[in-house]
Amino acid sequence: IYIKLIYFILYNIMNATFHCTKILNRHFNDMMDMIQSMNNLSLEQQSSKKGNSQKPLMILGPSAVGKDTLINRLKTKYPDVIYKLPSYTTRPRREGEIHGVDYFFVTKEEFMQLKLEGMLFGIQEYNNNYYASNKKKLEEALADKKKIIILNYNIETANAVKDDIDFNFVALLPPSEDELRRRLIKRKTKAEEIEKRMANSIREIQLINEANYINYRLVNDYEERAFNKLESHLKKIYPQLH
User: Fold this and answer.
1) Residues near 153 by Cβ (< 8 Å), separated by ≥ 6?
2) pTM of the model
3) What pLDDT does 125 receive?
4) What is the pLDDT of residues 6-42, one digit of tens each?
5) Which residue, among 46, 47, 71, has the nearest Cα to 58 in the 3D structure?
6) CA 137 to chain centre
7) Rounded to an integer, what distance in angstroms lies between the CA atom of residue 172 and that of residue 158?
8) Running DSSP on this structure, what letter comes out for residue 102?
9) What is the CB neighbour count within 10 angstroms for residue 97?
10) Segment 178-231, tens digit of pLDDT
């Protein structure tokens, strides 16, 4: 009788898990359908707006969606034009990282002093370390009119800075929940972190869906196709790419 009871309990747990997964998948797919059905601001409208070619570009999206991959491809193809502004961080420098190229590495005391002076924006905390961008560094980079300045942030940070700094916003999105999970696994994300990141990603996608200031939403299904679409979109805004 105890064995039957155990089987009964396990069956119900598995059944509940299956139905929860189906509901989560359906919720994810519904949000993706809503995003793709939204009318992006037309490229012609964007290119006609005065000064858009001089605005920095913010590429945002959930973890493992492919932001760094596409940004690095842009940097490789347009090395004299694309400049990714390094963030300031208090985390230790990893092997191979270069100060001023990958990040500006500072102590927590230096970071807090810059924050106190009002020099930082887009402040985030992750794993007890701080990340932010420096207003003066951004201004210096924007002084070179031949360059396109790119920043890489999440939707919460974009919401926080959008009224203070004028960006062109591009949101990068996954084609499906299953594909996003596959990418997290490929990045050797710890098992206990995957569900947490998946839940965060679904929340971020919903926030992206609600953000009416985003100029362009791009589903990264295949890298080559996504890169071509991103490049085509940016060429309508930034004459520096011609």
Assistant:
1) 58, 60, 122, 124, 161
2) 0.80
3) 87
4) 555 656 665 655 555 555 566 666 665 555 555 444 4
5) 71
6) 21
7) 13
8) T
9) 14
10) 999 999 898 877 888 888 889 999 999 999 999 999 999 999 999 999 999 999
The pLDDT-based confidence of 44 (bands split at 50, 70, 90) is: very low
- For residue 66, CA distances in Å to 60, 139, 157 come to 10, 27, 18
DSSP 3-state of 82: strand
DSSP secondary structure letters along 117-183: TT-EEEEEEETTEEEEEEHHHHHHHHT-TT-EEEEEE-HHHHHHHTTTS--EEEEEE-S-HHHHHHH
DSSP state at residue 216: E
Cα-based distances in Å from 113 to 109, 120, 127? 6, 10, 20
How many Cβ atoms sit within 10 Å of the Cβ of residue 206?
A: 16
- pLDDT tens-digit profile of 120-132? 999 998 878 999 9
How many angstroms separate the CA atoms of 199 and 188, rounded? 18
- Terminal C-alpha separation, the chain: 75
Note the residue count of the chain: 242
Residue with tokens 């996003």: 180
Do 87 and 133 meet the contact criterion of CB atoms below 8 Å apart? yes
Angle at 197 between CA 193 and CA 203, to 5 degrees: 155
